[in-house]
Amino acid sequence: MRVIFGSFSAITVLGGGVEVQMRALARELGRLGIEVELFDPWKRYGLKDYSYFHLFGSHVGTYHLGRSMHGLGIRLIVTPVFYSRHNPARVATAVGIAGKVRQRGGFWTEHMFCKELCDMAELVLPDTRDEMEMLARGFGVPASKMHELPNGVEERFANATPDLFVKEHGLKDFVLYVGHIGPARKNVFPMLKAVKALGLPTVLIGPVSETGYANQCMKLVAETPNIKVIPGLAPDSPVLESAYAACDTFVLPSLYETPGLAALEAGLAGAKVCITRYGGTREYFDEHATYLEPGSEESIVNSIKQARERKKDSALRDRIRANYLWPKAGEILASIYKTAAQT
């Protein structure tokens, strides 16, 4: 079986969780005898040689590619990576109105791109039950064509030790954030205000965008001596692994996550996790994390304090190792492909 993986054109420029997911799943499927090719826009494809085109992400950046592949007749599978904090009924109403407006004037909304890609797809693979419910009730995606495909993490994070990070940066038992600094969805600014108010040593690892929001964050960082920014480390960096093991608490204050690969990596490395309550995070972290309301600075402060007061234990690490390693996700995806191939 041969499959093409595709996503938005800037994926290798921006990096992030979707790229990590695609590369890890491609590797695991290869081990299971399924050949995966990352889409090359300059290659002339003979699509009859492939079983599926699997699209990761369903938004304006992936819409044309997904629609083109569907139009050429290859079987389309979509992993939407979609979440909305709006009620599904409200999403359904908004999509209905947007559809009528589009017919009259060509106006589009972000939700319309996602809905239409899901409509075109033969299979839709959300990574949480929350996302599955949103797609069903908000976009009318039939349950019969949805299968949950959990996210994963590399097992090597379980073997991480703090030594390398302590040696390079002289810090331990700090608050850690890993991710982009700049996109408003990441909600970094109120977290910075919280750790400044609490007087906690804090490390941010991630690229800093050229945005007004990022400038606001970096101004606060410059005013706070105990906050350190490391502009970016590769996903396979030993220093990143060590940072997870060296920190006390990993914080992901986003407006929502789906459900946060960096938090899974940190939890597997032994960090306590404090994370947004939105995006299906509770399905992954259960009772082994502290949950915050991203719109409330008071909630962020209190959640970080609660996490800091908890003792480290192995419960979250054991849960992630048992349920969310990439080989298991690869086996689930291979099973989905093979079952679909029989129809």
From TrEMBL:
Residues 172-319 form the Glycosyl transferase family domain. Keywords: Transferase. One of its GO terms (biological process) is lipopolysaccharide biosynthetic process. GO terms for molecular function: glycosyltransferase activity. It holds the Pfam family Glycos_transf_1. The keyword Magnesium does not apply. This is Glycosyltransferase family 4 protein. InterPro entries: Glyco_trans_1.
